[in-house]
Design a protein that fits this description.
single chain, 334 residues, alpha/beta, Enolase-like, domain 1, TIM Barrel, nine-stranded mixed beta sheet, four-stranded antiparallel beta sheet, 12 helices, 13 strands, 35% helix, binds magnesium ion
Amino acid sequence: MFRMVYRFAVKTYRLPLRSPLRTAHGVWAVREGLIIRLEAETGAVSYGEIAPLPQFGTETLAEALERCLGLSDKTDDAALDAVPAQFGCVRFALAMARAANPSVDKEKRLPVTALLPAGKAALAMLPGKLEQGFLSFKWKVGVNRPEEELGLLDDLLGRLPAYTRLRLDANGAWDRRTAEKWLARCAERPIEFIEQPAAPDDGDTLLGLAEDYPVTLALDESVTGLAAAREWQGRGWRGVFVIKPALAGPLDELAAWAKASQADLVLSSAIETALGRAAILRFAFAHDLTKRAVGFGVGEIFGERLWDGQIIGPLVDAGWSEAVDAEEIWNALN
Ligand code: MG
């Protein structure tokens, strides 16, 4: 088989978040990652993004960089394909840079979930998001005391019109008793699903909760890679899978798994830049990866158009990716 040879280069980026993100993992203030550049013998240039989230079990930034520096300036498909499976973020980027851009019907649209901050700040942000027309919301829980958050849940639901949907994301913070309290409360409430209600590796609790309560549950941190997603399906997980494609390896592997398994999929941001997001959205539209609202309503996360792309509203259309200029992003980095 013909093997393409490439010139390979990598640059790092370090972007402060406009407002630090508070989740059960702690406070996140700076996004660091890598942009890679491939130049084929034909002269064609393409780019990929590596946006690790080690708290989700991915490789670290240092590990990703070391892996990239291990690829020589002149590399080929064989070397790029040989990057081991545990480097999900690096593999995502290498596949992204080598993928042909799929053609997409520009009229296609997907609903977007607006991310609400933890605690009371959610109530303050909600009216503006409703005014913008968002129909799907995700609220970060497991950050403050459960009693406090359960009280806020009712305030929040009281202000959400009946036509909207609310997702909760506990980021694995609850023990079984706390999770049970929440699930009992949510059983009578219009909650779309609860994401990661227990620790990622606590299979007994997660499967038990799914069995005992009528609330739809979703795995996120548990299924950072597709191998883990397959394993959970094998163990009988029938709930939602939240997949951050930037962490999960090549997009075509994600599409193949989703199609074969018929998994109930939610696509979600890893707070990558517009470059990675453009590839993910382009692919999602081309392959009809999901019908559920996509978790890309992270707002002006970096506060700069170059890195955020066009502001994403309640609906994202298939043309969104076209406005992202990969070369401009590359040239902005040292
Ligand atoms: Mg999550």
